[in-house]
Amino acid sequence: MIGSLIVGAIIGMIAGKITEKGGQMGCLANIVAGLAGSYVGQRLFGNWGPHLAGMALFPSIIGAAIIVVLVSYLIGKK
Q: Which residue spans traverse the membrane (predicted)?
């Protein structure tokens, strides 16, 4: 459980850096983006590449980047 939260935070942080939206996100947002991105990425792109804490890293990072961009776009519209 704790391993998943740590890996989720790292995935969210990487996605934030890739999309250049990471400065706006806190630690909790990184965890949520990483975990949600892992779910979305693995559903859309499969389970390929290295795994940590049950998460395929590359699809998870891509999914988290999608989540970060989508949420930033929706928040920016308000």
A: 52-75
- CB–CB of 72/24 below 8 Å? yes
Contacts of 58 (CB under 8 A, 6+ apart): 41, 45, 48, 49, 50
Q: Are 38 and 19 in contact (CB under 8 A)?
A: no
- CA gap 32, 60 in Å, rounded: 12
Number of domains in the chain: 1
Mean pLDDT by 10 residues, the chain (78 residues): 86 86 73 89 90 89 90 75
Cβ contacts of residue 17 below 8 Å, gap of 6+?
none
Here the tokens at position 61 are: 């990072």
